[in-house]
Amino acid sequence: MKHNYKSIARCLSLCGTLAGLLLPATASADDAVVVPPLEERLQLCAGCHNPDGNSIIPENPKLSGLNAKYLNRQLKDFKSGDRASPIMSSIIPMVDESEFKALAAYFSEQKRTAGVSEKPDLAVLGKQIYDEGIIGSAVPACSGCHNEDGSGTDKYPRLTGQHSLYVSSQLTNFKSGERKNDPKAVMQTVAKRMSEAEIQAVSEYIVTLKEAE
Amino acid sequence: MKTLLSICVALLLPLQATVVVAADAQPPKVFGKKGYFWDEMTPERAAVLRGGGDPVKGKESFRGCQGCHKADAAGVREGVYPRLTGQHASVLIKQITEIRAGIRSNPKMLPFVEDPAIAMEEIGDIAAYLATLTSVRENGKGAEDMSARGKKLFTDNKCFECHGKNGEGNAAKSFPVVASQHYGYLLREMKWIKQGVRGNSNPDMVKAIAKFSQGDLEAVADYLSRLPDYRTVATPVASK
Q1: Is 60 exceeded by the pLDDT of residue A133?
Q2: What is the pLDDT of residues B24-64, one digit of tens each?
């Protein structure tokens, strides 16, 4: 898992504070689950993902505009451990499964902000991979499933303007098999056929994607 | 006695399991291997054919295919990925199920088409959807027009008996449409059929093209790539 450890530390200390505030309530509720109101629960997510889901920490994904079904599935996978994440695995025990739907719905309704590429010279190759795939190594075009503007569908997450650092970390994790909660193992297949350089390039293009008007 | 019996059972159980695993691990019967019968109906193919297809659902299921075959299902001009538009549903079902069964060798496509990437129920839907499409993009053709030589080879070797005079194939017999397919794809597949590496080759076709030179294969591929969409030929043109 590729992460900037400074930001993980920043995140964890914040989460720790929040956990400190929240844990007594959860611990005393062994029998009956105490579910806080959505606004309160959102504060837990906001520390890392921003209140509107447009995370400003490049290692952490933007959740805004993600399809609710996709988000819900990710939350469930974090809970079950099917998707491993050192940060989310420490947060998710505090959240009850009954809250997932509302959280997913909330973030899916937030507007995704535009992203900025810090390596725009890579975006030319990235665009070619995104739109045309890599024919020699049978990498399908990303646009085939995620749409040309990265808007995605029920099954395929929105990529538009997503942090390049996050996208490349996920592709790297799919490639290594560390992330394997893609239901059809399709992303693992795709990422395994990509080189590190191709992963970097396509991630730099994805961050520049803007929603079609 | 009871102990003895349970020991026997304990000894036998793993044995039985091994046998089952070994039976499962049997490689598929492919062209060139003993026991290969061309066009042998697999249980999955039979089930898909029985189930029919819904082109509306197929459009959504096709999303997972269009990264390579493109949103218009016309593939790529260089022919690395074939044009699927207007292909007979029966042919698409045969090819997809045989790729899934490992009979047709296609390691690049397999992970995207095997279960669970594509559920069995989706195969018929995708095939029904593709059969309804017409291509608007021009297909890839040979560098130079060799259609006269290609037509002669196609005729002399009776290729039309299966693939039709207009390259329209035969839906009932699962012979593919070859008209206006990409040149590069036709050439590659003919080579693979000739070399016996496609896995699900028809022995009759292997025999028919056994003596074809590289130039012959190129000429036939070029000829077929220049044939119009058979549906435009089969439909009578309104007289002026």
Answers
A1: yes
A2: 567 889 998 999 999 999 999 999 999 999 999 999 999 99
Is it the case that residue B9 has pLDDT exceeding 50? no
Chain centroid, CA B230 distance in Å: 18
**Mutating which of A128, A154, A184, A189 best tests the B interface, going by the most B Cβ atoms within 10 A?**
A184
Please give the single-letter amino acid code of residue A194: M
Q: Do A197 and A119 contact (CB within 8 A), yes or no? A: no
The burial of B211, by beta-carbon neighbours within 10 Å (0-12 exposed, 13-18 middle, 19 or more buried), is given as: exposed
Cα-based distances in Å from A100 to A71, A85, B69: 8, 17, 36
The pTM score is 0.83
Q: Look at residue A183 in the predicted model and tell me its pLDDT.
A: 80
CATH for B43-228 (1.10.760.10, 3.40.50.11440, 3.40.50.720, 1.20.272.10):
1.10.760.10
Round to whole Å and give the CA distance between A160 and A108. Answer: 13
Q: How far is B116 from chain A (nearest CA, A)?
A: 6
Contact B76 A135 (CB under 8 A): yes
ipTM, two decimals: 0.81
Please compute the mean of the pLDDT values over residues A104-126 and round it to a whole number.
95
Give the DSSP H or E segment for A101. helix A100-108
Instruction: CATH number for A5-108: choose from 1.10.760.10, 1.10.443.10, 1.10.357.10, 1.10.8.60.
Output: 1.10.760.10
The answer, for B70 touching chain A at a CB cutoff of 8 Å, is yes
pLDDT reading at B116 higher than 90: no
Q: Would you give the end-to-end CA distance of chain B in angstroms? A: 95
Residues in chain B: 240
